[in-house]
Amino acid sequence: MWSVHIHCKIHTRKDKMESLLRQLTHGNAMFLIIILGFGGTFHNGYHNTGLSSPSPYIQSFINNSWYERYKEPPPPQTITMIWSLIVSLYAVGGLFGATTVKFVSGRLGRKKAMIANSFVAIMAAAIMLMSKSAKSYEMIIVARILHGYTAGLGWSTHMMYLVEISPRKLRGVVSLTAVTFASLGKLSGRLFGLSEILGREEQWNIVLCVPACFSVLQVIVLPFLPEAPRYLFIEKGDDKACKKALQSLWGKGDYKEEMDEMLAEQVAIESAPPKSPLELLRDRTVRWQLMTMSFIQCCNQLSGITMLSTFSFDIFLEAGIPRDQIRYVTLGLGVSEIIITIVCGLLIEHTGRRPLFWGGYGVMSATWVCVTVALSLKDSSQWVPYIAAALIIVFILFFCGGPSGAGATLNSELFIQSDRMAAFVIVGIQRWLCFAVLGLVFPFLINALNSYCFLLFAFVSLLGCLYTFFLLPETKGKSLLEICEEFKAITVCGQSFLEKREETKL
Questions:
Q1: HSE-up of 209 (CA within 13 Å, CB side)?
Q2: Rounded Cα distance, 287 and 463, in Å
Q3: CA distance 388 to 370
Q4: How far apart are alpha carbons 446 and 319 in whole angstroms?
Q5: Residues 6+ apart with CB under 8 A from 481
Q6: Which of 42, 130, 327, 447 has its CB 3.0 to 4.6 Å from that of 185, i.e. a possible disulfide?
Q7: Judging by beta carbons within 10 Å of its beta carbon (0-12, 13-18, 19+), is residue 125 exposed, middle or buried?
Q8: How far apart are CA 143 and CA 131, in angstroms?
Q9: What is the pTM of this model?
Q10: Helix (H, G, I), strand (E, B), or coil: what is residue 196?
Q11: Full DSSP string of 427-452
Q12: Residue 32 pLDDT > 70
């Protein structure tokens, strides 16, 4: 009896996977997703990890360039200051890119915005390549700012493009590919940084330009692929071009259900024109969406994952892993991230978003507590450091398969077309500010608290678990207008934000 039941469940899941693959490959959707991924969030992931390997060679280059100019060695604090600028101004570029997404994507459309972003990435790579022969560390700083800009603009535009090409039933799977390509970028940054590949002193400028190859590919191929159907219908009012784009992406069909949903959203937008980020912040009707998006974004970044990406070498060194083995551990982390995001993509439309959030945060919180205990006992046995490393891998698996994957989908579902670009500006600014502040604070935090700093991450993850369990509505299989109504219905102590506004008016 049980064996028959299990066999039926396996057979059903296999049929669903085959159906999903057929839908993705029936038209050009899969090809567009791959091109967007390598030209979009892949850059963000690559530049997060790609700088760690060539860092000693770049600092040596700064020292030599200074000496050739001024015929005297630079003071140590000068090298530190220039290196800090190279690292931190990437986040400044990302912040600027996030603030311009509404202007660029609104004026150019999603496709042309991605192409323009690729041109900036190619220009940044050219400056980085020439910096070595020009003996100019200033050119490295300029290139890093431009790389940050492309990461900030590319992430938000990529996410919008994905949600606007996908039917309701596939929205979660398609949106989650952005996280998969970001994880692939992180792995590639670590892989190309190995000394056996490009991680040598004479090639430090080349290893930082690898993503530009995919930007060139995107510039060549993307003009032949369709614009986002939702953008064409709602913002351009071109229903024929919208239907043609849907057929090109997903195969022949009338797509009446999808176009009726867009029409309903267009009618709703006519009574509520597009808002600026400040207007969106003042709008009580979307207050719960903004709070949810910001809270989950903060929990994701303050849960410890950003520090694992940026300071993985220091964290594993603190855990007691031998220095010569750390690079292989970080490569294993990169592979784990990719596998789990793909699994999450297959599960998200089956399980829904909520269980992935609260379940992921719950396990992450418990894992950080165990990591703290393991690091406190690392001198008691030679196996304890490896247990700590295994726990960190568990944390990454549940983060990528839970809050990270589901968060990318949720951010795209919370707002209708007229509010989405302003919302992405807000979340982009928050994301890059958190990134910059954590990058500055964490080295001092780990020096002051040692392994106990991970208890802070455990507390943040616990808050995320409680919030998503008690307050977050399920968005699986619902239209964007239905999701907005779900959030309007949220009450705390018997009151919603809309009721408070009506009381204020009275």
A1: 18
A2: 19
A3: 8
A4: 12
A5: 261, 264, 265, 268, 416
A6: 42
A7: buried
A8: 9
A9: 0.81
A10: coil
A11: HHHHHHHHHHHHHHHHHHHHHHHGGG
A12: yes
d(CA 196, CA 176): 32
DSSP letter string, 379-423: TT-TTHHHHHHHHHHHHHHHHIIIIIHHHHHHHHHSS-HHHHHHH
Average pLDDT, the chain: 83
Higher pLDDT, 475 or 130: 130
What does the block give as tokens for 168?
């309701």
How far is residue 230's CA from residue 245's CA, in Å, rounded to a whole number? Answer: 9
Alpha helices in 275-383 (DSSP H): 277-282, 287-300, 306-310, 312-319, 326-351, 354-376
Q: How far is CA 387 from CA 83, 340, 381, 503, in A?
A: 34, 20, 10, 56
Cα–Cα distance for residue pair 159/420, rounded to 1 Å: 10
Over residues 278-313, the pLDDT tens digits come to 888 888 888 899 999 999 988 988 888 776 765 666
State the average pLDDT over residues 158-166: 90
pLDDT band at 337 (very low <50, low <70, confident <90, very high): confident
Query: Token pair of 89, please?
Result: 């101004």
Within 10 Å of residue 11's Cβ, how many Cβ atoms?
Answer: 10
Highest mean pLDDT among 139-148, 183-192, 305-314, 348-357: 139-148
Q: Which residues contact 30 (CB under 8 A, 6 or more apart)?
A: 24
